[in-house]
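It is worth pausing here to work through a concrete case rather than discussing structure prediction in the abstract. The textbook approach is simple: state the sequence, then state the predicted structure, then interpret. We follow exactly that order.
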Amino acid sequence: MRRFSCMVLTGMAMIGCLCTSAGAVEGSDAISGEYEQSETAIARATGPLDWTIKANSRKVMDTAFSMAAGESVRIRAIYSPEDASLDFGLLDSDGVYHYINVTTGSIDKTIEVPENGSYTLAIRNNSSNSVKVTGIVRY
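Step two, the predicted structure:
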């Protein structure tokens, strides 16, 4: 009877360990502490993008992230008006802007960081009208 009880308890412990799930709670900050695993890398932070950028100006996110050379940031967004010219990119701690110019109303691109440092998301509006940008950014 003792042996049978040990086997049952061991089996229940194994099932309990294998069937436990994990979850994340979405924060209210521009970048939340949500962690997701993809096939090739782990995103350190994910957050929504909901900005209005004035004509001929640049908007910079409040939060900077330390990143290692070779790490990347994925930007998926749409904007209106669609014919506006926007530069989506990362501003490094030296003030260098690593960007991709977009003129189609949407972006789904990954920007790889060239060297270790602190990087901040920035979007430059090159048009003469305000632009509304919505999307998601994954560090």
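Step three, interpretation. The CA atoms of residues 49 and 135 lie 5 Å apart. The first strand starts at residue 36 and ends at 37.
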